[in-house]
Amino acid sequence: YHNLHTKILGKKIIHFDTIDSTNDYAKKIGNEESEGAVIISEEQTKGRGRLGRNWHSNSYEGIWMSIILKPNIVPYKAPFITLIAGASIVEALNKLGVNAKIKWPNDIILNEKKICGILTELSAEIERINHIVLGIGINVKTMEFSQEICDVATSLYKENYIVSRVDIVRNILLEFESLYLEYINNNSKEKVLDICRRHSAIIGKEIYTIRGEEKELVRCLDINEEGNLIIKRNDGSIKEIISGEISIRGI
Ligand code: BT5
């Protein structure tokens, strides 16, 4: 991980061979550790997704990492950091020749299957952020996924992209830092939104929005300035979706 060329990200890298979850570890040390520390593990025994879901990462075949952030912004501006992460991951992968796309808000997909998930966790008080843990999981070398996820998951190697993990991590940290600093220092979102639109897996497509058991087929129109999803319902009305669950028709 030398020659990162970053200012704050990855100045400290904490590496494990095995750990329960890099996000859990980062949350424990988040208040004491300085901004930009990266926790990375070869394997996770209890990798987590959103809403207590399992993230398969008990093999040395991926990138399982968490970044500690301490932005001086109000807590409601934190969710945009997930989009910054998504934008920097697709931008980094595309620069390495991998045509990955963003499935708003926190999945990266390749050839219609998930290669990466993002889990952003916030520790905050009413007006102040203590720290944010940005968790990123990328399937790199996995050739066989367990039955549970084999229909939805893929890896870079499986799609015939032989890319080094160090190059991926280095590129992501570099892309992320520049977009992140522009956001927290200048409230600038333009580049992120531009990348999210250019590499979107869902804009212009029919998707299902999912609320509990309810599934609704809608057309995805755009991502707005706030980073929220704009959709058109069957009755022609336009709606803004702030966060949550969607699935793409046919995937
Ligand atoms: C996510 O959740 O996609 C966030 C994943 C974040 C993982 C990183 S790894 C480093 C850090 N430490 C952690 O403990 N977590 C973070 P969600 O959108 O809820 O998606 C979870 C769903 O993705 C599961 O229910 C499965 O269907 C699917 N899934 C699980 N493992 C997968 C994998 N390795 N590849 C692709 N899909 C997977």
Description:
The structure is a single chain. The protein is an alpha+beta fold and 251 residues long. The chain is 22% helix and 32% strand. The chain has two domains: 13-198, Bira Bifunctional Protein, Domain 2 (BirA Bifunctional Protein, domain 2), CATH 3.30.930.10; 206-248, Roll (SH3 type barrels). The strands form two sheets. A seven-stranded mixed β-sheet has the order 1-2-3-7-6-5-4, sandwiched between helices. Strands 11-10-9-8-12 form a five-stranded antiparallel β-sheet. α1 links the parallel β1 (13-19) and β2. The model has no long low-confidence stretch (mean pLDDT 94). Biotinyl-5-AMP (BT5) binds next to α1, β3, β6 and β7.
What's the gist of this structure?
The chain is an alpha+beta fold and 251 residues long.
Considering DSSP H and I runs of 4 or more, what fraction of the residues is helical? Answer: 10-25%
Architecture of the largest domain, CATH level 2?
A: 2-Layer Sandwich
- How many domains? The number is 2
Strand content: 25-35%
Largest sheet: 7 strands, mixed
Determine the CATH superfamily of the largest domain: Bira Bifunctional Protein, Domain 2
Oligomer: single chain
The average pLDDT value, as a whole number, equals: 94
Q: What small ligands are held by the chains?
A: biotinyl-5-AMP
Task: Give the C-level CATH assignment of the largest domain.
Answer: Alpha Beta
Low-pLDDT sequence parts = none
First-last Cα distance: 36 Å
How would you write the strand order of the largest sheet? Answer: 1-2-3-7-6-5-4
